[in-house]
Please model this.
Amino acid sequence: MRKTCSTGIIFTGILLVALVTSYSDKDKPKETLPSKEATLETLKDTPQKREIITKKKKAISNESIESKAEDQQKQLPKIILIITSQACNCTLERCFKGEKIVNKVVQQFPEKLTFERLDHAIEPTLVAPLERKYQLHYLPALLFFDRKETFRGKLEAFWDEGAIREKLIEIGLK
Amino acid sequence: MKIEILGMGCPKCKKTVANAEQAVRELGVDAEIVKVEKIDEIMKYGVIMTPALVVDGEVKCAGKIPAVEEVKNWIK
Model:
């Protein structure tokens, strides 16, 4: 009889403890996963926090450098050289010499100029609209566009490096 | 009829002249063949490349040597 009574008291005690514990857990606010920013904000000034901030700053500055470079690429003055690899020797010789001169000049403006080369024999569908739009008369032809992609002039059947330079100055290159 | 051959005098330009002369001869048509060799003059035709053949002011071909039969079709 005594043994049964003490077992009952122990059981009641356990129940009471369990009840009190569950009640106190209910009162506690539920923990949610903090956002990265919150984690950063709540982190004390530790080497870990400083490292995260440095990494973030670096990433942001890299992004802006890349986007700036892209913007500049878009805004570069542009020249389009149109030549042909199929014609008579009179035309081919002019195209060959013209391309050589243009390549030489372009190399003097690294990353300041967008240069495109079209071969009439290989890409006639790309050349034809340019031929009509800019009323080309003879190859090689060199088309000049400024930073706003506005057409600023052309050279045709050219040999003259000086003439190319003058046009490049007109489209904003020095 | 006036046939103009545009070209500055390379072998392909000369062959174009020869083919035009042969076509005229074989058809027996009355045609004047004129060689245009100065680049400034050639550029006025807007052919962008040579050799080119022009019949009565109309550009018939540019950038290749036309065959005798082609020329005959243009001038007959």
Q: What stands out?
A: Residues 83 and 96 of chain A are 8 Å apart (CA to CA). The longest strand of chain A covers residues 78-83.
